[in-house]
Amino acid sequence: MSQLDRVSTRPLLDKLGVRPGARVALVDLDDAAFRRLLATRTTDLTDGWPKGSTDLIFLAADSVEALGALTDLRARLVPNGAIWVVSRKGRAATLRDTEVIAAAIDQGLVDNKVVSFSETHTALRLVIPVRLRATPR
């Protein structure tokens, strides 16, 4: 078995980079099991549009139109935070990863990781490139 054939046994929250106490927002993501899982690691959870300075934003998107939210979400993200675009995978997919990547580039974001979110959904991580992050004064 090659390195690529191995199935990861890391917990989902670790794969997604959810640290204890992280400020997390769920935008259009109605997943009770994931919400319960998040509650084991953080209590700073927002349903809907996040407050400013949010560490991780999970955006459910199944159309290119839904990706229009990236503009406003990027502005609410901490410089080293991430927006996870969660969409259906496999034959049920209505959004291609190339469409997510193109929308990210349009908003000054880059993709740098993909995770199997669940049996039915995948998640693509979008971040602000290091060269564009505000430096502390």
Break the fold down into its secondary structure elements and pairings.
Elements: H1 12-15, E1 24-27, H2 32-39, E2 45-47, E3 54-60, H3 70-75, E4 77-88, H4 97-106, E5 110-116, E6 121-127
Parallel strand pairs: 1-2, 1-3, 3-4
Antiparallel strand pairs: 4-6, 5-6
Features:
single chain; 137 residues; alpha/beta; Rossmann fold; six-stranded mixed sheet; 4 helices; 20% helix; 29% strand; globular
Residues in β-strands, percent: 25-35%
Biggest sheet strand order reads 2-1-3-4-6-5
Q: Helicity level, as a percent range?
A: 10-25%
What class, by secondary structure content? Answer: alpha/beta
Strand tally is 6
* Total discrete domains: 1
Low-confidence residue ranges: none
How many H/I helical runs?
Answer: 4
CATH topology: Rossmann fold
Q: For the terminal residues, how far apart are their CA atoms?
A: 49 Å
Radius of gyration: 15 Å
CATH class: Alpha Beta
Task: Provide a concise account of the structure shown.
By secondary structure, the chain is an alpha/beta fold.
Written account of the structure:
- The chain has a single domain, classed as Vaccinia Virus protein VP39 (Rossmann fold, 3-Layer(aba) Sandwich), CATH 3.40.50.
- About 20% of the residues lie in helices and about 30% in strands.
- The longest helix has 10 residues.
- The termini are far apart.
